[in-house]
Design goal:
Blueprint lengths: L9 E4 L3 H12 L2 E6 L2 E5 L7 E4 L17 E6 L2 H13 L6 E4 L3 E7 L5 E7 L4 H8 L2 H5 L4 E2 L2 H9 L4 H4 L2 H7 L6 H5 L2
Parallel strand pairs: 1-4, 5-8
Antiparallel strand pairs: 2-3, 3-4, 6-7, 6-9, 7-8
Amino acid sequence: MGSIPKFAHVVFQTGRLEQMRDWYCDLLEGHAVYQGHGLCFVTFDDEHHRVAFMQPPVPMDPKAPTAAGMHHTAYTFDDLDALLERYTSLKDKGIEPAVPIQHGVTTSLYYRDPDGNFVELQVDNFEAADDATAYMEGEEYDQDPVGVSFSPDLMIAERRSGVPAEQLQTRKWALTTTPDLPNPLTVLTS
């Protein structure tokens, strides 16, 4: 078996380089390592760049919701508290999720960048990958692989009141506390 490649970076073609740079630096708590000649490279970890932007010298058409292509990028956190802390930090900057989703396998917050691309911030709901796979092969996931919406603010309040993360990271909690939220699939496909 050959060596396994590691994800290096994603590059967005944009007509809003500065807006995209600033938004992703806020989202990921990153910084630009280089900008010039219609290019910008951003990092937030040990890699020299993870996100880049390319602004061609021609007008860009907005992305149509029905266009084929990548739907979203996703970034994972070590635990629920770290995800909720980032949510609060972004909310303080006026950046709020388009839709929070309790997938069952992950607890996720979907944001839209200035160009309309979705970005998922998530935490795994299972410690072991085999347990997550078993969940995905189960009946609950098969009946609804997208999941249900939830209130991040309510989740924070309950977490602060001592509710264990493991209890909050379930569809049961989301359905019990916020049963009347809209179907998240309508947001993800618009």
